[in-house]
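User: Teach me something about this protein's shape.
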Amino acid sequence: MIKLAPSLLSADFACIAEQIAAVEEAGAAYLHVDVMDGRFVPAITWGPKVVADLRRISRLPLDCHLMIEHPEQQVDAFREAGAAIITFHLEATPHAQGLLAHIRKGGAKAGIAICPQTPVAMLEDLIDDCDLVLVMSVNPGRGGQAFIPRSMEKLREARALIDRRRSQCELEVDGGAGEQNLHEIVAAGANVIVMGSAVFNGGDPGGKLRRLRALL
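Assistant: First, the predicted structure itself:
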């Protein structure tokens, strides 16, 4: 089953409860929460307090994408705040396997993300410890970027690795996804698609998400 995960980075936080209710009713599978620290990426977004507040207003699983340095210092706080999935960047820690195991032991699903310049082969020894692999199809840290074409091949490589290892982990893509490339992304093997601008820009996020689901 293909899952759509609206990215709250593109939502209007002046009316966030209404926008979340709209995408929830329209069939969103996850709410994607981009956590940025101003160091691993230039932007700064939210911490565990916001995640805890979001948990109170939605029953959807919170898919927390940590674009931060030293994620091992923060994962427990996000799990306690209500994150259902905690994804950190391979590039951000030398202890990826141990951190994946720690997240799972704490009761959340564990994900690992790779930036556009990181080869999929770097995940070979980690795939059995993952619940989710996130292929970044833009450079992390800023919404509204165009999809990097090479990402399609990386999705195919990641899908081949997951299937070869008979892993049950999900394959997520984040960045530049929309009506124009949705079918190609699915054909490349992704089963969780993060969408920000394609859902929230211009109003009516519920209607836009329904249209995207209909295309699938």
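Now, about its shape. The chain is about 35% helix and 20% strand. Helices lie at 16-25, 48-57, 75-81, 96-105, 151-164, 182-187, 197-200, 205-215. If you'd like, I can walk through any region in more detail.
User: That's plenty for now, thanks!
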